């Protein structure tokens, strides 16, 4: 097997087909061999350094590719999640706004209802006082008082008929109720 592999001496012999690199004539043959071996060792070292640099570059490029792919996956995920987060935030803000609006409207309606009821009770009290005085007066003067009232959403209609000795007296009154619509 040793004979089948080419030796270094085989390469030093000039061949007819390939032009050979010639060394300066003044160098002895041993120096020539040492120089060729030194060049070959230098060439092997530079080849090894180049291969190592290529491999390190490949590893760095691979690491950068993996990092870029991971960043891209995270960006895609964030682009999917961000609209959902924004929608939840918008929905919670709208819910809060709606609750505040509902509370304000409810409070306003309670205040309006309280004001209308208090006015209605004052008017009703006044009507009852007037009725009581007229009833008392009619009994003493032998007159008759008839009357009725009707309350609608915006006003109160009051109609009184008073019959005394001299003749009938009809009182008709519409009292507006302050209702905000």
Automatic annotation (TrEMBL):
<dbReference type="InterPro" id="IPR000048">
    <property type="entry name" value="IQ_motif_EF-hand-BS"/>
</dbReference>
<protein>
    <submittedName>
        <fullName>IQ domain-containing protein F1</fullName>
    </submittedName>
</protein>
<dbReference type="Pfam" id="PF00612">
    <property type="entry name" value="IQ"/>
</dbReference>
<dbReference type="InterPro" id="IPR039887">
    <property type="entry name" value="IQCF"/>
</dbReference>
<feature type="region of interest" description="Disordered">
    <location>
        <begin position="1"/>
        <end position="32"/>
    </location>
</feature>
């Amino acid at each position: 097997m040793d004979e089948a592999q080419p030796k270094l001496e085989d390469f030093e012999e000039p061949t007819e087909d390939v032009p050979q690199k010639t060394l300066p004539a003044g160098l002895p043959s041993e120096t020539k061999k040492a120089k060729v071996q030194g060049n070959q060792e230098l060439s092997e070292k530079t080849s090894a350094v180049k291969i190592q640099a290529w491999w390190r570059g490949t590893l760095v490029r691979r690491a950068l590719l993996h990092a870029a792919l991971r960043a891209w996956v995270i960006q895609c995920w964030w682009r999917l999640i961000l609209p959902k987060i924004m929608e939840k935030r918008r929905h919670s803000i709208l819910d809060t706004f709606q609750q505040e609006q509902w509370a304000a409207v409810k409070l306003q309606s309670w205040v309006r209802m309280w004001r209308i009821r208090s006015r209605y009770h004052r008017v009703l009290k006044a009507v009852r006082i007037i009725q009581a005085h007229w009833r008392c007066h009619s009994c003493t003067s032998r007159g008759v008082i008839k009357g009725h009232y009707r309350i609608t959403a915006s006003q109160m209609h009051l109609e009184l008929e008073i019959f005394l000795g001299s003749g009938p007296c009809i009182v008709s009154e519409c009292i507006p109720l302050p209702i905000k619509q």
